[in-house]
UniProtKB/TrEMBL annotation:
InterPro entries: DNA_methylase_N4/N6, DNA_methylase_N6_adenine_CS, RM_Methyltransferase, SAM-dependent_MTases_sf. It comes from the Bacteria. Residues 22-234 form the DNA methylase N-4/N-6 domain. GO terms for cellular component: cytoplasm. It holds the Pfam family N6_N4_Mtase. PANTHER family: RNA METHYLASE-RELATED, TRNA (GUANINE(10)-N2)-METHYLTRANSFERASE HOMOLOG. This is Methyltransferase. GO terms for biological process: methylation. One of its GO terms (molecular function) is N-methyltransferase activity. Belongs to the N(4)/N(6)-methyltransferase family. Keywords: Methyltransferase, Transferase. It comes from Ventosimonas gracilis. The keyword RNA-binding does not apply. The keyword Methyltransferase applies.
Length: 261
């Protein structure tokens, strides 16, 4: 299996990928959410998303302060590129919170995907409580496909609700997703008849949870991360998860690593 991580802007990187070359898009882009007013939304991710009183100081990530019109335009740009590089019938899964859910479903469809449903990530009772209000316990995975998606695909039945708690020892990014959650989600990617996994694309890798989960489940994965800090977090995480792998930096001006697992 090969896992490749690129350091740079996803939009530029996606443009370099060939048409019809990947089997699933599974990604957790910046939501540009986190507040009811424009001023609140423009705050840094650490102000918007980190519970007060948390001991751990997270390094801020990039691209989380667009207003809704710009977020929609930006999503259309990279989703159109993802659609081009996906094979016909391939699934696309996007994380979103409740505030940006309508925008994200619009973006998926405007980019030419068929919107097929929403899965729920139930973060359990460990999620942020609100006195006198419902606990902020869920995030959403909007899913669709590039054109028709045959029922005969070589993929299992997936849960519609995935209940996974966030464990601090498994968290490597301010908004990092649990590895166990991503291990369930990546199974939406079709396997080849010989049982080997297809190629999973994550243009917003963060700390690399999709890539790690994909490789653990026997898929190949390609990803991109703009933040230098989180690019190195992902590199180190991949090396720690697969200590016997052979990681080599590509010998070019492009900052990119590949891992043979
Ligand atoms: C919500 S986080 C992904 C977290 C990831 N799911 C994990 O478990 O670690 C989104 C990531 O996208 C990165 N990002 C933002 N704009 C980007 C761009 N234009 N190209 C590539 N990465 C970008 C951010 O730096 C951030 O790390």
């Amino acid at each position: 299996m090969i896992c490749t991580l690129h350091h740079g802007d996803a939009l530029n990187w996606l443009e370099t990928l060939p048409d019809h070359s990947v089997d699933a898009l599974i990604t957790d882009p910046p939501y540009s959410s986190g507040g009811l007013t424009a001023g609140e939304r423009k705050a840094t991710p650490s102000v918007k998303y980190v519970k007060s009183g948390q001991a751990k100081q997270w390094v801020d990530f990039i691209g989380d302060n667009r207003d809704q019109r710009s977020q929609l335009q930006w999503m259309l740009l990279w989703l159109a590129q993802c659609r081009r590089v996906l094979r016909d019938g391939a699934p696309a899964c996007l994380f979103s919170d409740w505030r940006q859910l309508p925008l994200a479903t619009d973006a998926l469809q405007c980019a030419g995907f068929i919107w097929r449903g929403i899965m729920v990530w139930d973060k359990t009772e460990g999620a942020r409580p609100h006195l006198g209000r419902p606990r902020a316990q869920a995030e959403y995975i909007i899913w669709g496909s590039k054109g028709s998606m045959p029922l005969t695909r070589n993929a299992p039945v997936l849960p519609g609700v995935i209940r996974e708690v966030v464990r601090q020892q498994d968290k490597h990014h301010m908004t990092g997703k649990p590895t166990a959650l991503m291990r369930q989600l990546v199974r939406i990617c079709e396997r080849h008849p010989d049982g080997t996994g297809g190629i999973i694309l994550d243009p917003f890798a963060g700390s690399g949870t999709t890539l790690v989960a994909a490789a653990l489940e026997g898929y190949r994965a390609i990803g991109c991360e703009l933040s230098e800090h989180y690019y190195h977090v992902t590199r180190e995480r991949l090396a720690a998860t697969f200590p016997d792998s052979n990681q080599h930096a590509h010998d070019t001006a492009i900052e990119q690593v590949s891992l043979n697992i």
